[in-house]
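Q: Could you fold this chain for me?
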Amino acid sequence: MHISIPSILMALGVKCLLNWVMVVSQKKGNVCRGFMGVFGVSLALVDTVLTLSLTALHVQANGVLLGVHFTRHHVCLLSQLAGQIYGVLQWPVGVLGFLDCYVTLRGQGTSTTTTARLQRVAPVPATTLLWCSALIYLFLLSDFYPVLGEEHPYQVHRCWVFLSSQVLHVGAVIVLAVACALVYSHKAHRRTVSPFKPWLPSPGESLTETERRALSRRDVVQQALTTLLATWTWFLVALAALLLLLPVGIPGYLSLNVPWLCFLNSVLTAVVLSASCPASRVAGGLAAFPLDSFCDWRLGCATGT
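A: Sure. Below is the predicted structure, expressed as structure tokens.
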């Protein structure tokens, strides 16, 4: 669809502001501690450079720099390139974020000094490799072809913007997962209070290993879901509304942003905690996750005793 250049610049400016607000609002020491934090900072920097560059090109349209004659067509070209790169990065960022959450949580309390140091350093090369891979894919492997329109190069004031559906696909998976977790938690609660099928043993009886694991799993899922919804309910509601109102996608240059990464990091943390607890418990029966600055993931894992 066609969007005016001032609208593109305004949207990117608001996006940059939100990016840096989310980066600055994170707890000290957590910003660049994990992959999502490092990638979020790099995304904020890329968006800032992109916005300043597009603004300069728009203001200095028909100018010459280093022998290159820049026009407003270059604004359209860069915005389309950015949208394509952000769309390519959606699923890889989610996969790497999940792996980072899983490795960090499983290694709590047991990792050596060398392993902990490696976990702190690894996100930087992983982020660099991811950006480079996206660029290589876009320019050498994809079938992307820019659409610059038929207008005269000195009179173009609107850009054709590609829509990105990847973020909506990821959002749909997240909304479905949260809904399934709510159903599971509700059914588990009904089994707990049901007079026909008591969940806890009667006096003198003991729980089997399977029952203890089921109790612990139910408690962790309920606590993780409660913690996630306490912080991100408004974001989930907005995401669900976006899925209904914009089923075809959103402008590509807006599809990847730091608020989305922070929300995705919390969702992945909840998934990893629910899947790996109680095996990943640290001392005291608490599952604390240090890479999320917005949710307090100190969950008490029941033992069933």
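A (continued): The radius of gyration is 23 Å.
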